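RETRY 2/3 - previous attempt timed out on the joint model. Re-submitting the same 1368-residue input unchanged.
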Amino acid sequence: MPYQIAILGASGYTGAELVRLIATHPHMEIAALSADRKAGLEMAEVFPFLRHLALPRLQKIDEIDFAAIDLCFCALPHGTTQAVIAALPRSLKIVDLSADFRLRDADAYAQWYGQPHTQPDLQAEAVYGLTEFYRDDITAARLVAGTGCNAATGQFALRPLIAAGVIDLDDILIDLKAGVSGAGRSAKEMLLHAELSGGTHTYSAGGKHRHLGEFDQEFSKIAGRPVQVQFTPHLLPMNRGILATVYVKGDAATVHQTLTDAYAGEPFLRVLPFGQLPSTRDIAGSNFCHLGVIGDRIAGRAVVVAVLDNLTKGSSGQALQNANLMLGIPETTGLMLAPIFP
Amino acid sequence: MPYQIAILGASGYTGAELVRLIATHPHMEIAALSADRKAGLEMAEVFPFLRHLALPRLQKIDEIDFAAIDLCFCALPHGTTQAVIAALPRSLKIVDLSADFRLRDADAYAQWYGQPHTQPDLQAEAVYGLTEFYRDDITAARLVAGTGCNAATGQFALRPLIAAGVIDLDDILIDLKAGVSGAGRSAKEMLLHAELSGGTHTYSAGGKHRHLGEFDQEFSKIAGRPVQVQFTPHLLPMNRGILATVYVKGDAATVHQTLTDAYAGEPFLRVLPFGQLPSTRDIAGSNFCHLGVIGDRIAGRAVVVAVLDNLTKGSSGQALQNANLMLGIPETTGLMLAPIFP
Amino acid sequence: MPYQIAILGASGYTGAELVRLIATHPHMEIAALSADRKAGLEMAEVFPFLRHLALPRLQKIDEIDFAAIDLCFCALPHGTTQAVIAALPRSLKIVDLSADFRLRDADAYAQWYGQPHTQPDLQAEAVYGLTEFYRDDITAARLVAGTGCNAATGQFALRPLIAAGVIDLDDILIDLKAGVSGAGRSAKEMLLHAELSGGTHTYSAGGKHRHLGEFDQEFSKIAGRPVQVQFTPHLLPMNRGILATVYVKGDAATVHQTLTDAYAGEPFLRVLPFGQLPSTRDIAGSNFCHLGVIGDRIAGRAVVVAVLDNLTKGSSGQALQNANLMLGIPETTGLMLAPIFP
Amino acid sequence: MPYQIAILGASGYTGAELVRLIATHPHMEIAALSADRKAGLEMAEVFPFLRHLALPRLQKIDEIDFAAIDLCFCALPHGTTQAVIAALPRSLKIVDLSADFRLRDADAYAQWYGQPHTQPDLQAEAVYGLTEFYRDDITAARLVAGTGCNAATGQFALRPLIAAGVIDLDDILIDLKAGVSGAGRSAKEMLLHAELSGGTHTYSAGGKHRHLGEFDQEFSKIAGRPVQVQFTPHLLPMNRGILATVYVKGDAATVHQTLTDAYAGEPFLRVLPFGQLPSTRDIAGSNFCHLGVIGDRIAGRAVVVAVLDNLTKGSSGQALQNANLMLGIPETTGLMLAPIFP
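RETRY 2/3 succeeded.
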């Protein structure tokens, strides 16, 4: 019998992406879907693209019988998630896609999210969900905190380089280009088609983006001393995909070799031959992350470009990968779908 | 001294388009801009693309001194417009871009807009603003009602054909493709980039779109008997532009000749050679409407395709064209800007 | 052991889409890929989005050992396909995605394609590949001719209506909106991003589009007398998807009921509740076709809207569905992937 | 009588953009248009969006009577331009939009363009066309070499900073995002809508982009010593616009003040208040360049973002601005068109 899955917050893009992926997963069955304001609706009314699936009707969270659930994905907004997860049965495995449990440190959380954390015990318990680097912890965890999509992209480019000590830790720069689905299905003027299509601009520039909290936490932990990176996200007229152009000081060939070695056995992380750089069009809709490295005419400079789909590898695909580990299912199950192109 | 212009509802797309056009108009000066919820802001804060212009700060309507205004464009939402215009000084010339005064008949208004008209006297006074067909009335008018953008497109394709009696009045079909700016700058989920880009769907299909009220009124008036057309609008992943594919029964060559003759002297309406059909990319940002006619392998069928920019010729450009007439300025002044391509 | 599959013409979009779909098919293995000008390259060099797959290197057709192949997909250009297929071993099952074998009649072929057919025996042998209507023939066939993508969309909307006699056969109109991938991966000025994005226009209008040959053939066969439809395709700034707005004269409720009954057991054809119309965004990347019916304020008119993904249900997905039948595999195998949204 | 203008290479995007701009220029008249392969066609056949203009038919260059021409815009491909310009009458004022005369140094030209310059005398004569920094030279020039569009964007962000000595000259990084029209109207697979829309990737990364030749030349000249910047261009799914994110080491407030002071009197260069960054949507179709500066949480870092329209301020608008100077016309004539939004 397949594992019984609940998805809280199923009316957002990451919730729908979880349903899309689980739909072809051989060992999971969606048993409950919640959406507070849309409770009572069929999922097909909220997301007609899922019309072909037999899915439970959307419920309020307190209507769900969690005794019948093996694992719960929580795709709720930041902030409200803490209380919801605290109220769930302790027997439930939980993969959280919000930002609430990404930061291990209470002060860091308060700094980046502007309010104290209300569930410090859960914060202490949660495992950071960057699968390729926390596999054992995730396998044993009850509560896994999915990473930020931008944070995942930057870390795939940088973690092995910081760990290997092959780049200057004081001069790392991430210029990131993100598709609009990362902003969610919220009716905001700035996300309208007429506002966004055909143009680009920065957002949360100047050291203000919250995913910097994750970069700080993880890079400092790896380096064994404080590391701060510079980070400028840009919004692009595309729905899916993140491209991070990461500028480092170090030998480009060494950088490339370090990444190649680090990801040699990884099913989802693919390092291109030296000098080739990846494109977001080649990973859309998939759980793959492509990485490339190039040098510069200025000696001692290297550029790492990493691309992934923010809704898949950056969020719901990562979450499913983690859930597989937590349930003892082979890690790639349900995740080897090819990208869609064109 | 240039004419002093006020724009009510300047925080929407049609308001901003008016500012864009008037910016290079030699005989008009923008003296007042209103935006209820954004009163107090600079226009450049609401529309940074207008940053280079010296413009008055946004005000509430009742803060405007209309004694200093020659002509007022009213780009307010449907419904609220009636009361606003009724409260304006009678000495003011007004070009209304809302739907409130398009329908001459009180019952028709109530039918299509779901509520009785509150200003029947103004409704009786207003002139329908399809410039090429109401030039004399507009020149003499105090209050001109701008047409619907879809309604304008369909009428440019059909009015001469109905007037000349060269098509079957009982079998007219308008399949229309519209860009998203026609829906305005309103934060709705259905207008998000992530929802719209890369796809298409119908809206208000099945005889429900309100611009049918205009088609009914105008076509029946021309024909001297009731005429009802079939009309299916589609939303496309483009910001500007309408393409109306109009299916008629009649001789295609005659249809083409009729349109060619009707628009021979028109500066903004251009009929392509027989057999050529126009593209929206060729009119974006301009006040031009291109029309083409083609026959079919089935005898007695013709297809007329009309394209225009919904924000320019379909709305703000038309409004400026009418304002020119009302102020005694040459009709094309400020409106001969070339389209933008690519 | 899985069935061994060859794909001829793997460097085009339909070839790549076949690879994408077969990648997760449990009973097929890609044994050979051909691409004339790109022979010698890895598939990942031509389509980097397939980088994660272990695939045979691209070959010239005559380098392929067809003795080891069970079924061959032929995704070559129209015209050249005939000779290629004639030279393949008779023992090979073939699904052709070109236009070469769609028309049963030699004269019709010559009329629409401008040259005589060079393989009349194969033309006589080929089965028309619209799966839902030729299941038995396809199951028994050696050579199946995939339909045009526009032709498939229009037929899904119309075949049951013509068969049931519930619409006027002399007044059928298909206004179709198509994404650009249908034009293939050919370097033409008219297909450039700068030319297409943000605009729309017709193509092959006026009864000239070659898919009319398929409509004529199939509709006349069903009706038992000549049927000619009017057909206007439009190119839209989207990569995948076709939306056909089909105008018929008949009772809308009857039209809806007829389609609902006809497709009740079909896994890929889904008729929405009466009055709801589908969107292309809801089928992108999938083998589903959604259909909707609405009436009009004018009695006796109905509009049927059908949407599908031109590369999947309109081409490569259909081809795989047919291949499943020809190989005795359950028809939906490998084809139940959910659409991608957003 | 207006100045008589010729445009060589009128069948490309920059040629068409020149026509668009000159169409509303009060003191210029287009007297000749050349397009080698399209000679004999009307401009409206090549660019239907210019249909409303009375324009000379396209000719071959040697058919043009240059005696009647005051100023010639040369929008021909790189490489072929040299010989063409050498053959033009010496009495003719020329604004070249190609790359052929941008680099002052023969060796630098050979290095970046892979072949020796064939017209060293003209190379020596040509003035670099970055208007705001070479006004006097341009006013007096016979031959002006338009800058690269990326090169212009980066220079607007950096020149005053290098001149004022407020940034570290050895650590300048330009991460640039460019729309596709910059690649021209050439039928290449990589420029297809199906390839580009909805994704992004780098191009000419790693110190290989030819506009680096211009950066090197200009920045070294200003600094009085060699300056090399790092430069990574990205292609975005948008038609017009460049956004350059420029990373410098220096005090952000000083950087902002330096730019503000430098551009205080410039009609087309607009520096936003400190901490605000510009968007490409706000300059599309116009000759404006918006610049913004923000600091970082890491002290001593600043980010300058500059946006402009590659076809206007980055190419044809700049060319017209230079032509105005060369002809003694006020510099902003014909160039104050507002951007188009949305």
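Residues 3-146+313-327 of chain D form a domain with the Rossmann fold fold (CATH 3.40.50.720). Closing ticket.
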